[in-house]
Amino acid sequence: MSLQTASFVFDCPQNVRDAPGQVLKMAAKQYWTPASMTNSHGLVLLFAHCIGGHKEQWEPTIERIFALRPGIVREVWAFDWQTHGESAVLNSQLLRTSPSRVYGVSALEWSDAIAAFVNSPRMRGKRIVPIGHSAGAGTMSASIFLPSAFGNYLLIMNFCGMIRVLTTKDKLVSEIPYASFILIEPTIISRDLFYAYLEDRAGQMEFVVAATTARRERWRSREDAHSWMSKRVPWELWDPRVVRKLNEHGLADAPDGGVAIKGDRLQEALSYPDVQPHFDAAQELCRISLNIPVHFIWGGEGSLVPQFVQDALAKSDGRVAASVTRIDAGHMVVQEQPDAVADKICAVLDTIESFEAQGRSKL
């Protein structure tokens, strides 16, 4: 199998917090094989990473999917959040100097950028399957919104008092171009459930924010970084291929020598208390899950998401899960068990093909 890649940079939709004409960038990478691109009916998979992740973390999983299901997948796209990975490098000056960016970049803005991509001529008529891990799962679920470039806006106050901007215009379910959703360890939660367990949720949030802001982010060299990470949690629990991808693609040469994690850990930390995207995603799943299959993949005992949240997502407030499966790993299941994640994704893709084949046979 000869897996091909191409890198892209897309302009994000104009956000009202930025000056007209001043927009963030979103880095993306496309994956395909010469044979897969001849499959005009093949699926297009879109991947969104977790907080602290980057698009290339998916590559071991993507490679296995192409190896296992060469006749099903046409192409794959993976995206960097505007404050993560290569996107963070592209946006560094704006994020560092703009007063409007002191609260970072909401996952809703990432959803907007992905929605703009999905609604572009490039994706017209494609059979799309969005796949997200952790906060990336909520991002994909909220990408059902129409891109909000100069549309209707609603100002809201989130849990930490930050002002966020949301589009108030939804797509009709019949207009959503997604064949299915695959949500891996999603941190999606309804507003009511979040506030019912506020002390528990806020305590966990404070812990991850503190850990992120205290995390080491510079090393003398890539070799030094790899050696250091390989001996410490969480990286020592990861598949070695994913650690190498972080070393190759998640680090940048520092101006003063050595290497540093792409992006600012403070910007990353700001992503955790931004809970509105999780609320919006929960609401959207209520609206669409009877018509678009939603598949959940959870880790085992090390899951960051409490069982009561998992149960609520599977069946409450009108939400219906097409399937719920588990992998023996923690919340970072994508990093720890990339092959097992690929296997679960392939099983879901088989159900899409089987369902649509049955539909075509009845015509």
From TrEMBL:
One Gene Ontology molecular-function label: hydrolase activity
Residue ranges of domain AB hydrolase-1 in the record: 45-343
Key words, A-Z: Hydrolase
UniProt KW Mitochondrion keyword: no
Origin superkingdom: Eukaryota
Pfam families (UniProt xref): Abhydrolase_6
Matches recorded under InterPro entries: AB_hydrolase_1, AB_hydrolase_fold
Protein name in UniProt: AB hydrolase-1 domain-containing protein
UniProt source species: Mycena sanguinolenta
